[in-house]
Amino acid sequence: MCFQLLRVLLDKDKEHRNVVCSRLKEMPDRVSTRAYSEIEANFKALTRSLLALGQSREVRDLFVCLVEKVADPLRAMQLERGEVQIFLGAYADALKDDGLMIDNSEGGVHAVLEKYMATLTPCILAVY
User: Fold this and answer.
1) What is the pTM of this model?
2) Per-residue pLDDT reduced to its tens digit, 9-56
3) Alpha helices in 1-128 (DSSP H)
4) In the chain, where the domains are located
5) How far is the C-alpha of 4 from the C-alpha of 124, rounded, in Å?
């Protein structure tokens, strides 16, 4: 996977946050107001942590990153496991929305993020 393609998400942080948060807002019965507020307030740090996981070269480092950089901050927000799963799904699906206006012509920001999150989501949920 070419993680460099995902760096565009750091450049489009505000737009990405708006898309993810609007998706979460559409699910008030599944995501509490408190969880929504925590995710919105910590979105930039969560994005950096999620994307930084792609830089790890050893499985041990990946596990430590999963726990310390993603699961622990989510746990500190007191999100329920289901809310974490919904957030990660909304995060991955955000690129399907045209609101980010990311150029996908070079083969695949959408595809790379989809594969990346499809791999990481079960791992994050497993350590959560």
Assistant:
1) 0.66
2) 888 999 999 999 999 999 999 999 999 999 999 999 999 888 887 676
3) 8-11, 13-25, 33-41, 43-52, 59-65, 72-76, 81-93, 109-127
4) 3-127
5) 21
